[in-house]
Write a structure and sequence with these properties.
- A seven-stranded parallel sheet has the order 9-10-8-12-14-15-16, with helices on both faces. Strands 2-3-1-4 form a four-stranded antiparallel sheet. Strands 6, 7, 17 and 18 form a four-stranded antiparallel sheet that branches.
- The chain is elongated, with a radius of gyration of 22 Å.
- It is of the alpha/beta class.
- It has eleven helices and 18 strands.
- It has two domains: about 80 residues, Peptidase S8 propeptide/proteinase inhibitor I9 (Alpha-Beta Plaits), CATH 3.30.70; about 300 residues, Rossmann fold, CATH 3.40.50.
- The termini are far apart.
- It comes from Cohnella ginsengisoli.
- GO terms for molecular function: metal ion binding; serine-type endopeptidase activity.
Length: about 400
């Protein structure tokens, strides 16, 4: 490997002398020994990786176009090398103007005036009598999360440069509010007391590299997240992203992802929504119809509101946005509620309950999956199953939630 990397370094040095574009590539090693060896030889050759994730055996390098990776690709320690592709956020439109929060005096523990139509539509509030998600950990992999009176952030990470995970775009904060707004000032999200974590892997333009996403997913695995929301997509293919999702799936993490905003004429929905173990979420209107921009294709599991959705913005404001980006966190918040109700339930079981409880909608499975997300019926079915197991074991009967 040493001589191969030396030749690669000479190519890179020669390429930098002539002006031109650079590209990022990802080297994935077969084992940790090979990873350590590769890092050592890269350093010795003067190549500084832009990304190095030992748990994933992943190394990202930036190089001038025209550099030949074939020799390194053939090395027995190298699993594969692929282009570090870009993903983009699936938020479509930010409506002009910010809506400032108005303090509303609550006459009860749950103020109905703070429940947006979209949160009521997915039937999350009936579950709040039993839990608001406080026993679950939900990570939003996005542009970060900014401060807002209706958001409580438990922690996070910046996988782009290791800096702050605060939102410099607004997309991630909006997504987080749909899933987890506390109702302290203006609005409730689907799971108002969930432990919310910010994973900043997209930049100020709402764009990010697959390697940063993979590192973010790895962070979620390491920190034992229960649910991951991914409101972004990739039209092409990435083995790095697919394998990162598969690792999280094996660790029992439930993942939701936006289907994409390419409308009815796209060839397929975006990745990671189409990958096994991920609930792909389409967007619906206030009239319970599939949104015109929502991508169609195999892999859509559910649909949720995604048009003109009011949610949190960095600072003290609130904005309305549209996109399948807004649909996915409804499902993530709903999944967090179910995980909080039954912490021992497997992610696959929770996903099945959500899909089985969906309200059928016109459009077909390639447009809306099983239908409109309905959290309360799914919670009731989950608790009924838990009650049967408890009775079989001689325990107390679980209380059923009325949908």
């Amino acid at each position: 490997m040493k001589e191969t990397i030396r030749k690669l370094a000479r190519q890179m040095k020669a390429g930098r002398k002539s002006p031109g574009r650079t590209t990022r590539s990802v080297i994935v090693l077969k084992h940790e020994k090979g990873y350590d060896e590769c890092i050592r030889h890269l350093k010795a050759a003067g190549i500084r990786p832009v990304k190095a994730v030992r748990r994933c055996r992943l190394i990202g390098c930036e190089a001038p176009r025209g550099v030949d990776w074939k020799a390194l690709r053939r090395h027995p320690s190298v699993a594969y090398i692929e282009k570090d592709r870009l993903v983009k956020a699936h938020g479509r439109a930010v409506h002009s103007g910010r809506i400032r929060g108005v303090r509303v005096k609550a006459k009860c523990r749950i103020d109905p005036a703070k429940i947006p139509w979209n949160i009521a539509r997915i039937e999350a509030p009936p579950v709040w009598k039993r839990t608001k998600g406080q026993r679950a950990k939900l990570a939003v992999i996005d542009t970060g999360i900014g401060p807002n009176p209706d958001l409580t952030i438990a922690g996070g990470v910046n996988t782009i440069d290791g800096g702050s995970f605060k939102d410099d775009n607004g997309h991630g904060t909006h997504v987080a509010g749909i899933a987890a707004a506390t109702g302290t000032k203006r609005i409730y999200g689907a799971a108002p007391r969930v432990k919310l974590y910010a994973v900043k892997a997209l930049d100020e333009l709402g764009v990010g590299f697959v390697s940063d996403i993979a590192e973010g997913i790895d962070w979620c695995v390491k920190n034992r997240m229960d649910v991951i929301n991914m409101s972004f997509g990739l039209t092409g293919e990435s083995r790095v992203l697919r394998e990162a999702v598969a690792r999280a799936r094996r660790k029992g993490i439930l993942m939701t992802a936006s289907a994409g905003n390419d409308g009815p004429n796209n060839a397929r929905i975006d990745a990671p929504a189409r990958y096994p173990g991920v609930l792909g979420i389409a967007a619906t209107t206030k009239g319970n119809r599939v949104a015109s921009f929502s991508s169609r294709g195999k892999g859509i599991a559910l649909a949720a509101p995604g048009v003109n959705i009011l949610s949190t913005a960095p600072g003290r404001g609130y904005v309305r946005m549209s996109g399948t980006s807004m649909s996915s966190p409804h499902a993530a918040g709903g999944a967090a509620l179910l995980r909080s109700l039954a912490p021992a339930a497997r992610a696959a079981c929770i996903a099945r309950k959500l899909v089985a409880a969906a309200k059928p909608l016109p459009g077909g499975r390639r447009a809306v999956g099983a239908g409109l997300l309905q959290v309360a019926p799914a919670a009731a079915a989950l608790l009924t199953k838990h009650a049967r197991r408890t009775r079989a074991g001689g325990g107390a009967r679980a209380k059923r939630i009325r949908p």
